[in-house]
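Key result, reporting period 2: structure in, sequence out.
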């Protein structure tokens, strides 16, 4: 099935907004607009956000579960696109909540997860809980070869869709398919505990995010982070925005991440931990280095 075609984002989403609007959602639309400001309209995924999803599990059971998991994942993404309209909880939330939801719905409408199903090319890379480097290196190689066959236009080094991909294997598929069919109602939580409960919506589901461009540049690696991590559904939009910043930075070159638990070799996305920042020598040539 060909990818959906999107028109440029109407300027009304930042020029004709009501005073009370979701600045986070509008900010993400602005990032999307900047990403495609000079892009060629025929390029793959033009004016949309999201990732390519590599399906690595091919069993009779997975054939039934995969469409269920993708449908529930998309519902979760919509939930998180609207979640920021309801800040805090209780009376403060009721007073500050944002009823105008058009930017949030437009953001979700432009989400495009491009699923690649290739039993012959990907099934041997489904190893359950195997986190071996060879497996993820092969997935990153597959993604780069797949990219060579599509029209990336002039956006190859800018669009986050072309620098990283997602992967769903047997382990992550089981977790995604177990997401409850009914999600919490989008409304103000009454108490702090209710707010905490909504923040856990979708947990413990995750899927793999593979930073293929970063993995192809070993000379820029700092520390043990290998370039792949577990990504919770609530962070898919956040990582796309963050990836755009990485792609437009001369200093940052991977996503924030955290090893959980320590020493496990398993990494999760953490926006607050900017660890991939290049050292730069001070102008006086003293040999001292600083972070910029």
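The corresponding designed sequence is given below.
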């Amino acid at each position: 099935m060909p990818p959906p075609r999107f028109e440029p984002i109407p300027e009304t989403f930042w020029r004709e907004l009501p005073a009370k609007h979701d600045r986070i959602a509008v900010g993400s639309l602005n990032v999307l607009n900047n990403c495609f400001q000079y892009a060629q309209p025929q390029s793959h995924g033009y004016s949309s956000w999201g990732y390519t999803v590599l399906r690595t599990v091919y069993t009779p059971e997975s054939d039934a579960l995969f469409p269920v998991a993708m449908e529930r994942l998309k519902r979760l993404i919509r939930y998180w696109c609207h979640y920021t309209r309801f800040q805090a909880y209780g009376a403060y939330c009721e007073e500050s909540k944002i009823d105008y939801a058009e930017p949030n719905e437009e953001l979700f409408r432009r989400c495009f997860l491009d699923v690649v199903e290739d039993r012959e090319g990907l099934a041997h890379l489904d190893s359950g809980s195997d986190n071996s480097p060879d497996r993820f290196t092969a997935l990153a190689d597959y993604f780069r070869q797949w990219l060579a066959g599509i029209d990336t236009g002039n956006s190859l080094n800018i669009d986050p869709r072309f620098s990283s991909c997602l992967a769903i294997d047997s382990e992550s598929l089981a977790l995604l398919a177990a997401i409850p069919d009914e999600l919490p109602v989008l409304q103000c939580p009454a108490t702090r505990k209710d707010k905490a409960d909504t923040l856990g919506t979708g947990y413990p589901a995750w899927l793999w995010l593979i930073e293929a461009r970063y993995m192809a540049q070993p000379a820029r690696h700092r520390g043990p982070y290998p370039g792949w991590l577990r990504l919770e559904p609530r962070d898919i939009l956040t990582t796309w925005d963050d990836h755009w910043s990485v792609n437009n930075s001369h200093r940052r070159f991977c996503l924030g991440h955290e090893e959980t638990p320590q020493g496990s070799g398993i990494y999760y996305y953490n926006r607050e931990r900017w660890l991939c920042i290049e050292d730069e020598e001070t102008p006086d040539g003293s040999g001292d280095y600083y972070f910029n």
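The two ends are 44 Å apart (CA to CA). The chain is about 35% helix and 10% strand. This case is discussed further under Risks and Mitigation.
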